[in-house]
Amino acid sequence: MTAPELTTTLHEEVRSLAAERDAVILAHNYQVPEVQDVAHFVGDSLGLSREAAATDAEAIVFCGVHFMAETAKILSPEKTVLLPDLDAGCSLAASITADQLRQWKAENPGAVVVSYVNTTAEVKAETDYCCTSGNAKAVIEAIPRDQEILFLPDMYLGIWLEKVTGRKLNIWMGECHVHAGIRPADIERWQDEAPDAELLVHPECGCASQAMAFGNERTHILSTEGMINFAKASPKPRMLVATEIGIIHRLEKEAPGKRFEPVNRQAVCQYMKMITLEKVRDSLRDWMYEIEVDPEIAARAKLAIDRMVQLG
Ligand code: SF4
Questions:
Q1: Nearest-atom index, ligand 1, CA of 270
Q2: How far is the CA of 269 from the centre of ligand 1 (A)?
């Protein structure tokens, strides 16, 4: 069997198992193309959280990383949530523990805690508001201006939020190794090499501040879902993309005929790429790996996640 034939066979097997077991398959924008193609919904953290909360299916197969599957379980505790590979973690979520957050809160009594969704359930349980890059600005703006805010865990997103909201934030110095690896030099090079292209930059990037500093009309700081919407609506034929390269597949599908290029081809998240079509098939067939969250932690985390979903 050729590789494309094998992919087609696996795709059919996965879809038929999903129908048989009443499961919905959710995939993040950074998943490998064949996993995106087999999913019922592809999106960013916020979009997938909404799908997880709204689905009527008995089970959710989450093709993403561990904290995302935990979020789905918190939103749908009565459903089975499966993660096809338990080792699919996140360097950003790992950059702060619940103990570290409790300590930070104790040092800053009265401060409101805003956590990017890339955090563990335990950290969310210590959080007032969760946010994604898609609604982080709206979340900060919903908090009274005189209120001190602890923002975690991504420092680049925090710095970007300070600029777009004009607010001073107390920022945790965490980072995603993939986005931090996209450097200002990558942007500079492309500004020269592709002067006709629009530049789409994720605010988690190590280059985001630099991209904003260029401040020209063809630089756009966007969440992954914002990139999709921009690419569909823009009449421009060529776009450079500064985020994890998995998004290119979705962009090409949603805005056919346009040319999309990553500014850094090394921007690959090895955790996201752990989910393969075979593992999705095994997950549905063998009902693994079930994600559980302690009910007391889940109840506290849910308050912060609900605010995130509502403030989209
Ligand atoms: S790309 Fe970065 S933030 Fe996203 S899952 Fe991978 S390590 Fe985490």
A1: 6
A2: 6
- Residue 98, exposed/middle/buried by CB under 10 A (0-12, 13-18, 19+)? middle
Q: What is the pLDDT along the chain (312 residues), one digit of tens a residue?
A: 898 899 999 999 999 999 999 999 999 999 999 999 999 999 988 789 889 989 999 999 999 999 999 999 999 999 999 999 999 999 999 999 999 999 999 999 999 999 999 999 999 999 999 998 878 999 999 999 999 999 999 999 999 899 999 999 999 999 999 998 998 888 888 888 898 999 999 988 877 766 665 557 888 989 899 999 999 999 999 999 999 999 999 999 999 999 999 999 999 999 999 999 999 999 999 999 999 999 999 999 999 998 887 876
Residue whose CA lies nearest to ligand 1 atom number 1: 269
Q: How far apart are CA 260 and CA 33, in angstroms?
A: 15
Ligand 1 atom with minimal separation from the 271 CA: 6
**Residue 1 CA, ligand 1 centroid: distance in Å:** 34
In angstroms, the CA 133 to CA 30 distance is 15
Ligand 1 centroid to Cα of residue 297, in Å, is: 23
